[in-house]
Amino acid sequence: MCPWGTLGTFLPPIEMRENERGFKQWREDTGVYSRFAAVLEPPNRDITNEVMYDTEVEAKVREATNNEAWGPTVPRRESKLIRDSEDTTKTQDQSDSEDGTRTQDSEKMRQAENQHEWVSILRTKKETIRCLEEELKKVKPDVGIVAMYLKTVIEWLPGQFTPQKFSGIDLTTLEMKVFSSYLYGPTLLFLLRNYCSSGVLRRNDQCRDLFHSLVQLGYLEENVNVLLDFLSEASLEISKNFVDILERTFLSECFTQCILRHCSNMQKNEADRVLWDETVRLLTSLPERVANKFRDKSPELVSPKMYCRIITHHILLTICFIAEGLEHNVSANTEPIGKLLGHLCFVSDAEALLIPMIKWLKKWGRTDPIIPRISQKLYKHVPYMAKERFVSTLLRLADNHKDLHIFLGDSGLTCIITKHLLTQKFLITQETPKAGMVHTIIGYLATIQEDSQLLRSTFLKLLDTWCNKSIMRHSSFDYHVHVTRGLLTCLPYFTSEDVESLQHVTDMFLPALANYLDSPNMELRLIGMVFAEELTAKLLRDKPSLKFVYQPSDLVLELKKCARLKEERIDMEAGNSSDDKGANESLVVEKICKEVDNCIDHKEVLEYLIEGEAEKVTAALQVSEKIVREDSSNMDPELALEMIKVVLHLEDKYNTDGFEENRAQTLAALLVSHPTQCAVYLGGEFYERNHNLKHRLDVLQTLNRGALELSGADRIVKYALSGVSLCTNDKWKSSERNRMKDVANYFFYPLVRGLPEPLPYLDLMGSDRVLLCDLLRTLGLILKVTGQCEATLKMSKCLLELTWSLRTHEDASVRAACLEALSSGLECVPDAILLSLVPGEVVELRRWLGQVLKQDRERKCQILAGKLALRLDMCFSQQLGLP
């Protein structure tokens, strides 16, 4: 936690702020973007002795003359100000005679004097700025004069926003008010034009540093407005210099100080609210407007993720500042932060905003009770239109209901929209994207109210939905699971008083249970049985509960776990268990591992895997690869096929360390030991109905591992498949002959056989094209590692025909996968017989490669096409006898 008055952690050292080169070097050396993206350690630096030289401001000014108005907003303000002062002077005598009181006369005289003082200050400062502008317009401006005027302008700026200013002890001078109200924006605009057009402000080091200081010490509200106005009128070439100013503005403390100014209770008038609303609008639209200007060359700063992370950083600094102020009895207004946060959540990357906020506010809240209070105030000020997006993102990121409390507090009770979202929309109207969100919502509803009235009413709504016969018939199975999960999660939180008040639910529950039991869908019947058992066991404590006979499954285990464990227990089983329990489990696994290692019969290992107990499955997977490889010659092929089926369908239900790698190595060992039977089985499983995307990728990865190992490579071969790096196991490398020549057909043709057939549950040409790309690369790898033999010639012909219809696919990744597969596959065909392989196909392939080189916009496709075209051209030249 930062001390009272602390701001910022990302300023460069003072000695590096002296010039432009120092700033660029600091930005490159420290990687400021990556640091903002991570939102690192909480702020801990004192700013009382720091001067802000990091940011820059924009300038907006027209010609300054005594007879003409200044800037777009000055005519209104100045003419009204002077007119009011003149009217006051002319009518003063009339007012004296009409009022007849000395008090009123003196008050009006003071008002007239103040107005005349404003006009006098305004004219003096306009004259100074006019001289600065005229000097900058010269062909060879005097650097000393320009620097002198810039220093004068900087003195008119408010400087650091200290705790004294935040609490109202130090007030802004009249000169600063006049300059900020009428002259700051126009002045910044003409200075920015000079800077971006490579004027003296950019060429001269002293003037450039002073301009940077002016920007950083100025007002973010005007900075953003002037920057966007300049961006809209400037050409693309001139706008390139604009990026540096934009970065300095957002990576400096002027952003934090702007938020603090509006959070201070010293600024509570309507004009300030309107100004902040306009600033929020500009901030939310800035990334899109900059991206529209620069197109594909947009700066990294305005990418949604980076932009939101930077603003989150400034918001965290502001919260830190406000928390320290509250400890000193200085109150603050959090409405400006709530508005900014809500608008950005609504239009930009909400996760990029909330991930660092949840991380740091949860960490700070453990030691400082003020932090949760501020966070909950922020949410209350989030606009209504953004609350749903805010809460849904928060639910996806929250680990448990305590994370929800950090922002929501008691809003689930007091805010109608939040209450509707949590009790109706996310539990009943629509399904949540992950099961943990249901536990988070129910845990929150159970803990925000002592009498659990809200939890009971939510339970009754869910039960009414569950019992509705029409919903049961016309809703998806996943929706039934979602509603049942919510009902069962409520049960552990019910007290004895809640159970007494819910005795009447059995009357509405039993008729609905009959509908579930009569359903032709076995899984729906399972849902009804499990819910009936758990509900009656909870409500009918002194009476016999319902019992059913059914086979246990993953769904049954999940639903029963919801009904018997509270959220803290669920988190502990997911991996947050105590050290003692983890140590005991490790000892059990080690003991069972020794027992399995002493087994000689593969059937015993298979039995351990089938039993499904956490310790036995973990131990069996740790030693199964070793047992399979050491005794593969004595292993029955049917047993190997049965074992690969079991291992392929294993799931990591217990968050076991090394589970995926041990499983992958075991599958590869079984495939290598019995390639004929296992390869045919895996190729067929790739197109089976009851598999998700991960299972199909596991099939391709296993075939890749097995092909690499059977090829007998004398070095570790790496191959990228969907971001996963596959390599042969160095411990089991073989230096024997290439065994893939004998079994390549069993790897290749089962995968090819189902590709042309459209399947209703597998859209390889559309939504599942990621699988198609990996499948093509796998086919190319199989040909490549098999090498030159008669089988590869036939498979190469098949691959050429197979990829014909995919070469013009609209997705560049599919076209690139075709080129990779062809390059790998044709590599095993000798040049002498490549053209005679399929003459017409090879000629058409060369024409297509030429079109890719000329017309394809994807750089990767062009590179792959160039390499393959070069080889075909060499083959053509050899056939024609050309040198």
| Tally of contiguous helical segments | 46
The strand line-up of the biggest sheet is 1-2
Average of the residue pLDDT scores: 77
Shape: flat
State the separation between the terminal residues, measured CA to CA. 75 Å
Could you tell me the strand content as a percent range?
Answer: under 5%
The percentage helix is: 55-70%
Structural class: mainly alpha
> Radius of gyration over alpha carbons?
36 Å
Strands, total number:
2
Largest sheet: 2 strands, antiparallel
Low-confidence stretches: 1-102, 567-589, 596-600, 714-735
List the helices and strands and how they pair.
Layout lengths: L19 H11 L1 H7 L35 H17 L1 H8 L2 H36 L5 H13 L7 H5 L6 H23 L3 H4 L1 H12 L3 H14 L2 H4 L2 H9 L3 H10 L6 H25 L9 H24 L7 H13 L2 H16 L4 H11 L3 H14 L3 H8 L2 H4 L1 H14 L6 H12 L5 H15 L1 H6 L2 H14 L5 H6 L3 H13 L4 H18 L14 H11 L2 H10 L2 H19 L4 H10 L2 H17 L6 H12 L10 H15 L1 H11 L7 H18 L7 E4 L2 E4 L12 H14 L15 H18 L3 H13 L9 H15 L4 H4 L4 H17 L3 H22 L3
Antiparallel strand pairs: 1-2
Helix pairs in contact: 2-16, 3-5, 4-5, 5-6, 5-8, 6-10, 8-11, 11-15, 14-16, 15-17, 16-18, 16-19, 17-19, 17-20, 18-19, 18-20, 19-21, 20-23, 21-24, 23-25, 24-27, 25-27, 25-29, 27-30, 27-31, 29-30, 30-31, 33-35, 34-35, 34-36, 35-37, 36-37, 37-38, 37-39, 38-39, 38-40, 39-41, 40-41, 40-42, 41-42, ...
Provide the descriptors you would attach to this structure in a database record.
mainly alpha; 46 helices; 69% helix; flat; disordered N terminus
